[in-house]
Amino acid sequence: MSNGTSNTASNATRLAPPLAAARTYPEQKPSDVYLFGTCVLDLFFPDAGMDAIRLLEREGIRVHFPQGQSCCGQPAYTSGYTDDAREVARAQLALFARDWPVVVPSGSCAGMFRHHYPELFAGEPDTLKQVDALSARTYELAEFLLEVCKIRLEDRGAPVKVALHTSCSARREMGTHVHGRALLAQLEQVERVDHDHESECCGFGGTFSVRMPDIAGAMVRDKTAALKGSGAAEVVSADCGCLLNINGAFEKQYERLRGEHLASFLLRRSGGKADGGQS
Amino acid sequence: MNAPAIPMTFKCRAHDAVHDAQLRRNFRGAMDFLMAKRAAQFPDGDELERLRSFGNAVRARALSKLPELLERLETNLTRNGVKVHWAETVDEANAIVHDIVRAHEARQVIKGKSMVSEEMEMNHYLEGHGVDCLESDMGEFIVQLGNEKPSHIIMPAIHLNAGQVASLFHDKLEVDYTEDVDRLIQIGRETLRRKFYEADIGVSGVNFAVAETGSLLLVENEGNGRMSTTVPPVHIAVTGIEKVVENLRDVVPLLSLLTRSATGQPITTYVNVISGPRKAEELDGPQEVHLVLLDNGRSQAFADSELRQTLNCIRCGACMNHCPVYTRIGGHAYGTVYPGPIGKIITPHMLGLEATKDLPSASSLCGACGEVCPVKIPIPAILRRLREENVRAPDDEPRHMRGQGSKYSRAEGLAWKGWRLLNTSPRLYRLFNLAATRLSALTPPKLGPWTEHHSAPKAAPRSLHELAREHLGED
User: Fold this and answer.
1) Tens digit of each residue's pLDDT (9 = 90 or more) over A29-48
2) Which CATH class is domain A27-147?
3) List of chain A residues whose C-beta atoms are within 8 Å of the C-beta of residue B364
4) Hey, which residues does B274 pair with through a beta bridge?
């Protein structure tokens, strides 16, 4: 495993330093957090959202899921429909009014809250104050579990090789690829294996995958081949956009391998639900 | 200038390219090699970040006083005996070059590597006026021999492997077939060496134009740049107006970033500093030196503070080397002089958004380009901005770009309005979720382009909203 700060070889795993200054984390675990579930997870991976809630609850945290939440606005934002994205973002703002941390089980939606909301509201000084405060207390799930909860996971599963796919936003906007790795490293029986061109995009990119199907298709074919070729028995990722892309391609190729959300994997390996039941 | 038809067929070209196994192998191999070379040059991530910030600051400072620096550059170059010409368009630039060619009754031009001369299609233009224009950079020479265009801004022939070059040399230069790379380079050099002495005019690009000293910096590895700029009696340098830096000391960090990012070299074999024609007491060098400063849309980028960052570019090519899209389709599929991420953000200023409207969409916004850019151009943010310019109403004010609204579509605009309504009305969203989960079985097996490479996604039986409501109650 490479612990270098840049790409030492194409096949090795790349750990680039986060672009922004290192983040400081609160000393104390909060009593309450919000969960922003994300729209893809809401419809396609709801169990991963529930597993995130259970992981947080097991840490003794009360989780709040504002029922009015929908989408972070990213699809419109990256498609150039900035005004529509801003209004959808504005609808989320009011729902996370208390000063509790907002935990997001997706690097790309967390990145939207943290880095792009301030851009969206740059022209509205009053709203911007609220937005800046929100962005400052937004955390990607793996980051939050590791840095704020200081979670200690006890592995109760059988030995297994796992490949970790980190989304581009998690890696480059949020710098949370290191957290996903560190969490997996806590699981004694889990061996994380590198896959070919690990830091390369899986080809999802939101609307990119339908606007440019040839290129996106070539990218996901390479990604699925790399994951398969890694020798891993399981694939884990903390972003549901990537999982939708990778799992959809695996299914199309009649492959048995499927990616699982990191939250589900961690919960399953470390003894299941908060009430002690197996998920 | 003619609006090129090529970018209209970007998707067709991309389609062909991803299905060309040889091309895919060539690019993947070459890009892996270049990425590894670059990485080896930056073992210390903190040092790299500091240097990138430094490079960004130097470029931002130069651009913040661009008009003033260009005037100082002209004054100091003129003092050094260099003739400075200004061209707003490529047609004007070609006309300037043609005037110089005519004044010297030149028949043969030898050219060092210059992407601005590619913008001008100078070879083609001069040929049309009965003047031979030969590329002296080995990669450019190969590309010219094969009647192709460069597929990479640093390594123009990177799309070819040794066997393909061997066949080309065998066919065009009538030499024995050999795949020995050293022998191939030797054949190329022998052919070129004669031409340097025959040429009436040498043309080159410029890496950095230093306002303070009135000097033109040119980096290269083959010595052809030095030959092209010193052997023929006349030297014409062509460059974009953004290449100016204020002081000679500004070149130090930029040079270090350029060579390490581009080819993974600590420094190039040659660093030429051209500060004027041959002086009375000197034995060699050209008798005349000209600089053509080309705008070609750069002023449009300059006028907008976000888009201006596009002009930070020092043309290292690292963004394309690290781009998953470029790696899949190669440089030619873009149909533009500058391919890859930098091509997607600079070309719309040169050709207008109309002719380049598909380029900003051809990215997953993965951020690899922005991560490696030595002068910290926020390429993904600029791509997103160009998408916004693409879908704005064509008559929307204020106007920032030629070809604004080239992908404007009422239907798509309405679809996003519907999406906005759905995601800003909790009741509607709840109803939609209920329908999507309960009617999941009705998902059609084919969903447009998505199901070319994926199975159709099926919604879960119950949404997270429902599961969370059950577990946590209404919140």
Assistant:
1) 999 999 999 999 999 999 99
2) mainly alpha
3) 168, 201, 203-206, 208-209, 216, 219
4) B216
